[in-house]
DNA sequence: CTAAGACCTCACGCCGGCGTCAGAGGCAAA
DNA sequence: TTTGCCTCTGACGCCGGCGTGAGGTCTTAG
């Protein structure tokens, strides 16, 4: 698929997709004339990238993870990266859960009134 | 407590605490000479603020929520704010959960090797 | 063949959440 | 009172994640 289609399929902008490639998060093929061609998997990849970014991951960390996933062998360094980021996401998850619960109680308090 | 103590208690920097006040997220008392004095509750408030910021909330949205919490009456506008932010946090929570699970499987795959 | 639209590569701009000075003033101990 | 640390108020700087042109090329419908 072409970049505009991927953008529409994922909700990302064309600019963002090019930025992701620039950061090494995406590696589309190119046509002879230089136009980007994405495989269907790219949709999931982009959604994944955006969810990581939304959870406070930096693009550099995501690039590390990507390299880790595509390597045949996992180096100790990569292992460390994964573990560190795992700790991050655990914290983010707990924070999100707490925040969600807190909101739920606020909603229970005010939510049944008129709009 | 003074700002340095609050900083140490919360893990935020002094600069960040002043920034939060600037944004209307915190309202410490002042001594006659102008030094900030925080009540013990401020610790929880700061942790709460940081968790919201970490979940992608803007400081303006948090200020709105704060105003909402301290008002005697909840206006429809505030109600809308809370609902919108609730949707945000729901999404963030689901994303975090998915990310966490994905990491868990990665760790299961590589995590039992040597460091 | 042509015209519209999607795409390309620079490259500068923006904004939020602080970091980081500079310079001046509190405050507790000796 | 002096020493040393904490705090104060500006005010500029930085960096990531894009937005937004400018100026040119590709593709495809008619």
Automatic annotation (TrEMBL), chains A, B:
Keywords: DNA-binding, Repressor, Transcription, Transcription regulation. Signal peptide: none annotated. Transmembrane segments: none annotated. One of its GO terms (molecular function) is DNA binding. It comes from the Bacteria. Residues 1-68 form the HTH merR-type domain. PANTHER family: MERR-FAMILY TRANSCRIPTIONAL REGULATOR, REDOX-CYCLING DRUG-SENSING TRANSCRIPTIONAL ACTIVATOR SOXR. This is DNA-binding transcriptional MerR regulator.
């Amino acid at each position: 698929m072409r970049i505009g289609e991927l953008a529409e399929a994922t909700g990302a902008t064309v600019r963002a997709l090019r930025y992701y490639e620039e950061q090494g998060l995406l590696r589309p093929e190119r046509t002879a004339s230089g136009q980007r061609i994405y495989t269907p998997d790219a949709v999931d990849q982009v959604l994944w990238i955006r969810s990581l970014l939304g959870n406070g991951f930096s693009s550099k960390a995501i690039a590390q993870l990507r390299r880790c996933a595509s390597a045949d062998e996992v180096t100790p360094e990569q292992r460390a990266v994964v573990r560190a980021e795992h700790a991050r996401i655990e914290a983010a998850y707990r924070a999100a859960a707490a925040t969600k619960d807190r909101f739920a109680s606020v909603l229970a308090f005010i939510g049944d009134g008129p709009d």
